[in-house]
Specification:
The chain is an all-alpha fold. It has one domain: Hypothetical protein af1432 (Orthogonal Bundle). The chain is 62% helix and 0% strand. Helix 9 packs antiparallel against helix 10.
Length: 216
């Protein structure tokens, strides 16, 4: 991860008021095209669904749960550093979309190197990072994780236990990761987004552990 504890000068971390009307202008459209270009040819795990579908879903959740245009842009770009070129791409994001967007994108990146560190170590490091992350980064991160869990649930209902072969952490590692994320998100006062994430994680655990209806 790159400079997780550094703070961009002049960047505010206060979330916008939830009921404020959000105007999406040319910057948002440019960000969408930037994300679509960078992720061109990428698909969701073990599917033919273009990866941009996930990015649109995360941006939608961010807007639904109080984010403004900058945070919606960060949602569109939250995987671009990790999946599309590392630190040089983060510099490009900062140049094109500003330090506030770059700060959140950096905060949602669990690795900017190739090859990536081992899966478990990378996820443990990311969860530690979330403990000190600002509210804006946590909002986009939680929206990303909620989108991911909902996708896992949909695919689990379709193909069952074979879904775990898609994930580097397998069944146990994946369930551990989402439990740990939920525990961290709940450490601060939970909002509606976190409540939705909690419901999705609980449903995944119930499906994965039908005998007990809960996690290991």
């Amino acid at each position: 991860m790159s400079a997780k504890k550094k703070h961009e000068s002049g960047v505010k971390s206060k979330l916008p008021e939830k009921k404020k009307w959000v105007k999406l202008g040319p910057r948002f459209r440019r960000a969408f095209l930037f994300a679509a270009d960078k992720h061109h040819g990428q698909t969701r795990k073990a599917s033919t669904i273009p990866y941009i579908a996930h990015l649109m879903g995360v941006a939608s959740l961010v807007l639904e749960f109080g984010g403004d245009e900058d945070l919606a842009i960060a949602a569109l770009l939250h995987d671009v550093v990790e999946d599309c070129g590392g630190a040089p791409v983060l510099a490009e994001v900062r140049r094109r979309f500003g330090p506030r967007v770059a700060k959140v994108v950096d905060g949602c990146t669990d690795s900017d190197t190739t090859p990536k560190p081992p899966w478990r170590r990378r996820k443990e490091t990311y969860i530690r990072h979330l403990k000190s992350a600002d509210a804006e980064t946590r909002l986009v991160s939680a929206a990303d994780k909620l989108s991911n869990v909902r996708s896992i649930l949909a695919d689990y209902r379709d193909i069952g236990e074979s879904i775990w072969a898609r994930f580097n952490g397998g069944r146990d590692g994946t369930l551990w990761y989402y439990r740990a994320l939920l525990e961290e998100f709940l450490r601060r006062k939970p909002n509606r987004l976190i409540q939705e994430f909690a419901l999705a994680v609980q449903e995944l655990e119930a499906l994965a552990n039908p005998a007990s209806g809960q996690g290991d």
